[in-house]
Structure formats: C-alpha cells, structure tokens
Write a structure and sequence with these properties.
Elements (H helix, E strand, L loop, with lengths): L4 H13 L1 E3 H8 L3 H13 L4 E3 L2 E3 L10 H6 L2 H14 L5 E4 L3 H9 L6 E5 L2 H7 L5 E5 L3 E3 L4 E3 L1 H7 L4 E6 L3 E2 L4 E4 L2 H12 L1 E7 L11 E5 L5 E4 L7 H7 L3 E4 L4
Parallel strand pairs: 4-5, 4-9, 5-6, 9-12, 12-14, 14-15
Antiparallel strand pairs: 1-3, 2-3, 7-8, 10-11, 11-13
Helix pairs in contact: 2-3, 5-6, 6-7, 8-9
Length: 256
C-alpha cells in the first residue's frame, strides 16, 4: 500500500499515542470524519492499524511484523533524519556491520559519499545499494535469504559473522519495552543480530520514536548492551532515564 502524507502521519500519530478516536484524528488533520474513516479503513485492511468502535489502535500482534513495504513507508522522514545523524558520526576508513531493517537501509543510503568503508551485512538491499559506491567494499553474509525482506538469517550467518571484529555494529530493532528490553519478531534474525553486536567494538542502534513501547516476541538484548542510540524525537518516559542509567549516549536527530 502506498501511503499519502496524511495517512503516514496518521499511522505515526497512533503509534505515538497507542489509541486515538476518529474525532481526535479528524481535528488533528483538519479533515472530515468521513475522510478519516476512509483512511482508517484502508490502513486496517492493510494490517497497519486495528479499528474499534469510535477509534483506532495499533495491531496487537507480538508474533509478526508488518510487511516490508509498509515498514518502508512508516516514519520515512524520521528514518532519513536518523540516517543523516548516524552517517555524520561515521568516519571514512571505517569497518561496519549492518543488520536487517528499513532504518539501516536508510543509513546505507546516507553513506553513499563515504570513502574506504568495509561493510559486512546480512541485508541484500544494503549490499545492492552500497556496492554501487566504488569507495565501499561490501561483504555479504552467508545463510538463508528470507523472502519477505531479503534478509539473510540462519546458523550459517551467525558462524560467518564470528570471523570478524568491526569498528561499529549498526543495528535496528522492532520494539523497545518500558524496562529497556530490546525485542524483535524472528528468533533467527535475533540470533544473527546478537552475533553482530558481539563482534563489534561499538554497538550503535537506530530506532525512530514508533519503536518505543512496541511489543514483539523475541528478546534481543537490553539498552545497556548499546554504546550509542540514535532516534528522531526525545525519548518518552521512562526511556530517557533508562538510557542515562545504562551509560548509553542518546543522539536525537536534528529536524529539517
């Protein structure tokens, strides 16, 4: 589903609030109730939102992520801002590992002008993009290709990553719980991301504001496993003090 700007903002508003009434959404966007109902109907049919009488909320599944193309459309501008903030901190001549995710793909796009990078990834989208930069060497992990998003997962991938020790591990995440637990949906993907984090001298996580308080089934780790956390808005309570207590540097991307 291709989202228009209002629909994208509607999804982000619900992700931020958890639930919103149809009346509140109409007032927020300055449109009629009928227009909001049509938007909500389309988004519900696409599985991006769940309707209830008089309002809308996030889908409650902790077992399955939304489709890849839908994830690309969600918070797209926020991801681009985060990507620019991350790229600004990455020096030329750096070695990186990058995992599966639309935010890490945005970071790859922001690295197209960097020089002398060596990037190891289990994300075929990142590999295809960065391989067009003649100043970047791309190493693709072995393993099974996941059809839904072109991510590479499996025990072979974990073993492959164990050969390396890179300067920075760049990772995304599906959800962050209120106790600081990092979560994702696919246990195979989580095992690969854990291996990536274990073989990086510094671990940088990039996650937009919609990932706070988002449920997912599989535990990846904890905020204290990170060195730097990049996001697009100041983290809501209780995440700011959790990051501070864990000694994690929090970088909020500048607004355009």
């Amino acid at each position: 589903m291709d989202l228009n700007p209002r629909q994208s903002q509607l999804v982000e508003a619900v992700r931020h609030q958890g639930t919103l009434s149809i009346e509140a959404l109409a007032e927020r966007f300055g449109v009629t109730l009928q227009t909001v109902r049509r938007d909500v109907q389309r988004l519900a049919e696409a599985g991006m939102l769940a309707r209830f009488h008089g309002g809308v909320r996030l889908p409650g599944s902790t077992t399955e992520n939304v489709a890849y193309r839908q994830r690309q459309a969600m918070a797209a501008q926020a991801k681009q801002r985060i990507a620019r903030a991350v790229a600004a901190r990455i020096p030329n001549g750096c070695s990186l590992m990058m995992n599966i995710g639309t935010t890490t793909e945005a970071i790859a796009q922001a690295l197209m002008q960097h020089r002398d990078l060596r990037v190891i990834t289990n994300n075929l989208h990142i590999a295809a993009l960065l391989s067009t930069n003649p100043q970047c060497e791309v190493i693709v992990a072995s393993g099974s290709v996941r059809a839904s998003d072109q991510g590479i997962v499996g025990e072979a991938t974990v073993e492959f990553l164990s050969q390396f020790k890179v300067d920075i591990g760049l990772v995304g995440v599906s959800g962050i719980e209120a106790d600081g637990t990092l979560r994702d949906y696919d246990f195979r993907e989580v095992k690969v991301t854990r291996a990536l984090m274990a073989h990086a001298r510094e671990v940088w996580m990039a996650a937009d504001h919609t990932k706070f308080n988002r449920p997912a089934m599989v535990e990846l780790g904890h905020l204290q496993d990170l060195d730097v956390f990049f996001t697009d808005l100041p983290p809501p309570a209780p995440f700011a003090p959790l990051l501070q207590q864990a000694g994690v540097e929090c970088v909020v991307a500048d607004s355009d």
